[in-house]
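Changelog-adjacent note: as of this version, every example in the card shows the full chain rather than a window. The one below runs 578 residues end to end.
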Amino acid sequence: MKRLFPLYIVLVSLLFGCKPNSTIKPQSLIKVSFSNDANSTSLDGRLLLMLSNNDEKEPRFQINDGLNTQLIYGLNVEGLKPSETITFDNDVFGYPYPSLAEVPPGEYNVQALLHVYETFNLETGHTVKLPMDNGEGQQWNKSPGNLYSQPFKIKVTDKGITDIHVVMNQVIPPIEEPEDTDWVKHIKVKSEKLSKFWGRDIYLGAHVLLPKGFDDHPEAKYPLMVFHGHFPSDFGGFRTVPPDTNLEPEYSERFDLDGYNIMQQQEAYDFYKRWNEPDFPRMLIVEIQHPTPYYDDSYAVNSANQGPYGDAITYELIPEIERQFRGIGEGWSRFLYGGSTGGWEALAVQVNYPEEYNGCFAACPDPIDFRAYCLTNIYEDDNAYYYDSRHKKLEVPAHRDYLGNIQSTLRSGNHLELVLGDKSRSGQQWDIWEATYSPQGNDGYPVRIWDKMTGDIDHKIAEYWKENYDLRYILERDWDKLGPNLRGKINIYCGDMDNYYLNNAVYLMEEFLEGTTNPHYDGEVLYGDRAEHCWNGDPNQPNAISRLRYNSMYVPKIMKRIAESAPKGADLTSWRYK
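Full-length structure tokens:
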């Protein structure tokens, strides 16, 4: 019998069609280096390799968390020298295929990019390597100084990828600073607070829209509207000339509208005309720049990993804006507004600095109650990526349309971030929440709220988040102290079909606010029926239009608030000229 056993195995294998080594995946190897033409020094950073079978754009502009994403793989490099070769093989983690061995056969454009890291010696005593913002708002695929290669075609076969060498010989050029105009001024302020934390000079910026008659009324001092949001390259939504008649209409997939670019220009021009109307209040509107090495903005609060951005903005940047442009400079004359990231920031700044501002208008805010951290309860759920089930593995969604169709999940989005950068360095959404809300780890980087690969939640870190950044919890915990200074100042707006499920946290916040006494919060929480991200409180216009009217839609509410709350003797006249 022992002699016949090998023959038996062969016969069974033939019977069932088995082939030797059928489960062995093809080995793929792609070598990447950079040339002396691109840089002559050794570099640290995140090396990214991309594959795309779509010829419309370079692969670096086709990586996202949606259904149309292309492929990306990433690893860290330290002290990488010109012409030194780094190999991407099957073991390098990627997205959406975890391994190069899983890439389907076909023809692809291949491209490599090095997201360059710099060394920071923090005030805390830690040394960390992070990407410095270079004027682009922390966008890895277009950050000046990053190296990249020109795309070229390769073929993936059922035997894998071999004999491919990608050379990065291009450098993303610097970005030109916007120029001042008669209406819009640009300033940068060195923050002593942030420079001390980061161990190098850190600047905050602002784009300031001046009121009509600013130069003709030197006696006037003005209220201030602070627009919070993602990194603005210039003041948005303001245009002194009609839409360009030669502009080629572009289709907006998000809003299913043809010629949306023309609509944007028209709305910007319409705002310019409203800004000049005799009865429009004269005020300053500012869009602030506060990118960090972790994201395109700091979330405007003090944090262990990013430093005292809240204090720097409120006590350094805002007073300097008011000094240069004749702001009134008192809490009753300052207002906060914004959507999404900006919605969370507007509310968080109002809560953290209740006497320094006189009202916030928070549209579609990022999670303001971590029991609804999108679709995860970080205090009770054990895993962020999968619903709790003994026998069924169902992923938690991350993005939907207004009918509930799913485009991505928490797991896939977080795995993309893990490819773009470990240690919360991806520059993307889940990582910036972590960089803002988490304590600093022993290595100087943010402590994970959950295991980035598996989704298992660290409830000890969740408690830290709760005590420091869960806005609903903080308001409920401290209402006896905060309430008197926040009465009439909290206004929240959200679509009930927000793409990121942000309305769930707003429901929980509303439940608390409506139950407040001594005092009652005396603000408003409104919802848009079937409205997606970023509904901001206009029941008469679709998202596509109302999102372009942030700079004017809250002005009537602000004027009402000033009339009701300005202290006796406040300047209510110098800025009310025609």
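Structural remarks: Residues 30-171 form one domain.
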